[in-house]
Amino acid sequence: MSNYLEQYLPRVTRFSQPFWDGLKQGKFQSTRCRHCQGISFPPHSLCPDCFSDRYEWVELKGRAILYSFTLHEIVPRAYIKDAPYITAMVDLEEGPRILCRLKEARYEDLIPGMSLKVGFGQLDEKVAIFYFVPAER
Predict the structure, then answer these.
(1) Of 1, 88, 95, 103, which is most buried by a Cβ count within 10 Å?
(2) What's this model's pTM, rounded to 2 decimal places?
(3) Would you say residue 1 has pLDDT above 70?
(4) Nearest CA to 69 among 114, 10, 128?
(5) 120: domain CATH number?
(6) Does one domain contain both 21 and 31?
(7) So what's the pLDDT on residue 80?
(8) Containing structural domain, residue 21
(9) Distance of alpha carbon 58 from alpha carbon 80, whole angstroms
């Protein structure tokens, strides 16, 4: 792997390790506040709603609704092999709105409000990733 690609790899910390390990096992998970029950994504050790530091890891359902999307045709060198590709804002069933990659879909077929489901893949031999695909597939 080139040094250029390495700068785009996620930063895995002791706190975030369960998230990355879960992706390798086909689990989409994040943190839930034990005080207010709010779901955070990405995972947080401090609740963004009530500021409690009491959290637990929970598996998410992996379902979402498409909010917005864009097509990337001009991309950083590290992602040229993927271009063109689509990124999307999606509303997870559990509440958080997140930015993610959208795969297995044609840009012209996308409609805000459509149902999506999570998919899993490998960025490289060490790093697992998630993305979303149309739920009808």
Answers:
(1) 88
(2) 0.90
(3) no
(4) 114
(5) 2.40.50
(6) yes
(7) 87
(8) 12-60
(9) 34
